[in-house]
Design brief:
It is a single chain. This protein is α/β, with parallel strands linked by helices. A 6-stranded mixed β-sheet has the order 2-1-3-6-4-5, with helices on both faces. Helix 2 packs across helix 3 and helix 4 crosses helix 5. The longest helix is centred in the middle third of the chain and has 17 residues. It is elongated, with a radius of gyration of 27 Å. The mean pLDDT is 94.
Length: 206
């Protein structure tokens, strides 16, 4: 079992916990991590791009000139792709880019990312994250105490003061344990999780 230090909001080590090997000590599967990221990005795509084919553009019903005898190449319509104002050959149409990964694959990918974060020393556990008021300055001070800049902060419950205090920071994102995903865990250098959040992750993903 991997053993990590537990820090308080002042950045001082106050305890240590052992992380479950079934989540934080698995064999890293890079292919599944790659597929999980692809899936998230693909599922975000609107797929609303559209251009017209030759059957959809306006006009071009009449043959522009007779088939033979003009010296021109034969043409059937002024809306063929080679004409100005003609349709596109393989025009994009609205489509759904999303695809599915099964639950086991998603979990295996997330476990792989969490394992790599722990191995790289980029997984920080804090005993609690509590703020008396919504104050970005105070939240920045907590991050400075933990020597963290670009971080995904994982909370166990909906703490409005912490979430709103972090909202204005472009290099920080807060998430609850049920929102934890591969893309965010990779995007941010460090994962900062409360002790309660770690316990929930181990219970849910075991």
């Amino acid at each position: 079992m991997a053993k990590v230090a537990v820090y308080n909001m002042e950045g001082k080590e106050v305890d240590s916990i052992e992380l479950s090997d079934s989540i934080f000590g698995v064999e890293i599967n890079e292919h599944l991590v790659h597929m999980a990221v692809l899936q998230q990005l693909a599922n975000k795509r609107q797929g609303t791009q559209k251009a017209k084919t030759r059957s959809e553009v306006r006009g071009g019903g009449r043959k522009p000139w007779r088939q033979k005898g003009t010296g021109h190449a034969r043409q059937g319509s002024t809306r063929a792709p080679q004409w100005t104002g003609g349709g596109m050959v393989f025009a994009p149409v609205p489509r759904d880019y999303s695809f599915k990964l099964n639950k086991k694959e998603k979990r295996a990918a997330l476990k792989s990312v969490l394992t790599s974060k722990v191995a790289d020393g980029k997984f920080i556990v804090v005993d609690e994250l509590k703020l008396d008021e919504i104050k970005t300055k105070k939240f920045v001070q907590v991050l400075n105490n933990l020597k963290v800049e670009k971080a995904l902060v994982v909370l166990n419950d909906m703490d409005t003061n912490v979430i709103k205090s972090a909202a204005n920071l472009p290099t920080v994102k807060t998430a609850q344990t049920n929102e934890l995903n591969v893309f965010d865990a990779l995007k941010y250098d460090t994962v900062v999780a409360t002790k309660a959040a770690v316990a929930t992750i181990e219970e849910v993903y075991a």
